[in-house]
Amino acid sequence: MKAFAALYHALDATTASLAKQAALQRYLQGAAPADAAWAVYFLAGGKPRQLVPSKLLRQLAQEAAGLPPWLFDESYEAVGDLAETIALLLPAPDQAHDLGLCEWIEQHLLPLRGLPPEQLAINLHAQWRRLATDERLVYFKLITGGFRVGVSRLLVTQALAAVGALDPKRVAQRLMGYTHTAAQPTAARYTALIAPESTGEQAAQTSGQPYPFFLAHPFNLPLTEFDQALGAPAQWLVEWKWDGIRAQLVKRGG
Length: 254
Fold this sequence. Notes:
- 54% of the residues lie in helices and 0% in strands.
- The chain is mainly alpha-helical.
- It has a domain at 54-144.
């Protein structure tokens, strides 16, 4: 969790794409596969369903901070983000931990969903007492569903491709369906994202997993340079660019 929180703050501290990609690569190269699996899930846009009702979370945080409701509300208005407000107002941690991101998510955060309010209060207090302020920010952003850090899916794809020495287009295809709510990240799924290409990879894809959709881009070079840049037009297949909902018909395995 400490490493993922450090990555979050490193990404949040810069607007340079190259710096963001370098930070992502450093994290992925040093993280355990199970932790990297969840990091890629969140950074690529995956979000767990609501874990704790926002009203209850605000109430528990306000009580733990020892603040009257009006002062908590004023603080929230000044900060503008519930997760950051709670992370700043809670008392300093009085315990330590050495758990990775995967352990925090699977053993502590996900089990919160559906608990009665009394048990939620006990579990939340026990958890945030072990987290430093920078970790709490990430923790509460995950709980509230507000985890955003200015990293595009393309940037995540490029970082994974660099770590695995792969073509980014291959990684983009493997990422299809990775953030689906019904598919929980695992070390095996992450390892498959960066594994060397194999001849039977296409046949092993699940039947419902589509190919990445491609966007149209203008050709800004002189037409005399078309062949050199993209190959002879006779080697291309041309199709209409239709508007509306994109769909694919995928047939695999015979």
